[in-house]
Amino acid sequence: MGTLMQNLHAGLVRTLLQRAKFGLLALDPRYVSAVHWIKSGWSTSRPQLEQRMLVRVAQQIERFKTLGLLTHWPAGAVPLLKGWADLQSLPVLGRTELRELFPLLKQHWGDSQRAQIERSSGSTGEPTRFYKRRGYNPQGLAFHNVMMSTLSWQPGMLRLAMWGSDREIGMNSPHPSQLRQLGGLYLFGGFTPDEAEYRRFYEAIRDSGGCAVYGYSSLLAHCARLMVERGWQLPAGCVKTAWTGAEMQFPHQRQIIGQALGVEPRDTYGGRECGWMAVECDHGTRHINPRYVIESLQPQTMAQQPDGQVGELAVTDLFHEFTPFIRYLIGDLGAVEWRECACGRHGFCLRELSGRISDMITLPSGTVMCALLINQIVQEHPVIKQAQVVRTSPTAFEFQYIGDEMPADEFAELQVLLAQKFAGAQTAVRRVGRLELTRVGKLMQYRDISQS
What we know:
The protein is of the alpha/beta class.
C-alpha cells in the first residue's frame, strides 16, 4: 500500500510539473509556431506541403549562403526550386564535406553563447562534428513533444529507458541525471549486458504504476529475452507504450520485446545530427517529422528514387540554425512514400529502412551483400541472443555470437549457410562473451578489422 501511494504521489507531482512546463511553453510564440508547423504539415495535401517545404529550403540556402557556409557548393550556384524534382539540382552534403566544413563552422560559432559542438555517434562511419543550439530551444522542444505524443506518451507518464554508454545516457554527469528524474525520466545503462542492471530495469517497470519504456533495439531485446527466460512477469497494463530507437528494429526483436512488456514496441528513426525524424503511430506508419525533407536517392547518381523505392537517405533540416544540413547523407538506406494514414495524419513516411551504408559488405568476388542477413540467422537459431559479422582479413569473415552452446547439427548447418552466403571467402563461427559495440553502446551488424 505504501509503494502504491508513493507511486501515485510521484505521478501527481510529475503531471503537475510537466503540465506547468507545457503551459509556459504555450506562451512562447516560437514554440506555438513550431507545433503548428508539424501538425499542419500532417493535415495538408502533398502539393501544398511540398511547396511549403521548398520555401523553407530556399530560406535555409539563403541563410547559409549569406554566412559563407556552403563552401561545398559550386561557385555561383543559384538553384531555382519551382518543383519537388528541383531538389535534385542541389549538391549533397556527405560526411567528408561536413568534416571539411567544420573549421569554418568553428570560426563562425566558436565564440557564440547560442551554439555548442556536438558529434555524431559514429555508428554509420567516422564520427563527425557540427554545431547546434545551446540551452533553451523552443522549436526543438515543440518538435520533440509532438513526436512523443505520436508515440502515445502523455505528460506525467514515467519514462524508463535502456540506453547505451555513460556519455549517451548522462550517467557521467549527475546534475542532468537528477533533472531528468525530476521530469520523470530514468535511464539505465546497457553498454555491457549485465543481468543485475536488467533486473533493476525490470523491477523499476514492475513497480512504476504505469510507464513508457524505450531504448536501443538490441538492448531492449536482450533484456526482454532475459525477462522471458527468467520468468520475470509484469503486471498487466503497467507498460502503457514502448518504442525503440538508435538502431534498426527487427521482427524478432519486436516479438520478444512485445512478449516481455505486454505491448508491441513502436519504431522510431533519428540521428544525433537531426534528432527524431520519424516515429511510428498506433497504426504502424512511420510518420516523417515535417521539420525534415527526407529523400531516397539512387546511390550512384544522387537522383531521387520513385516513391517506395529503396535508396540512400538524404536529410534536409528546415529549421537548423548553425549547420547547413541540406541534402545531408546520413548513412542509411531506406524508402520514402506519401501515405494517408488511418490515424488521421497524412504526409511523407518511411516505408522501409534497409540498413546502414556501413553494413554493406563487398566480398572477394566483388558481390555486395548486406550484413543484416545475421538477423535472419538469429531468428532461426534460438540459442543465439546477439550476433555480429567480423571481417578478419580481406578474404575471411567470422560470425561471432552471444548465447548458449550450439548443438552440433545446428552448428554444421550454420557453417554451410555462411559458406554459401560468403561464397569465395573463408568463414568461421565463434561463440564469445561480448560483442564489440560503438562508443555509445550500439550493436554493429558488421565490423571490419582486416586493416587493423
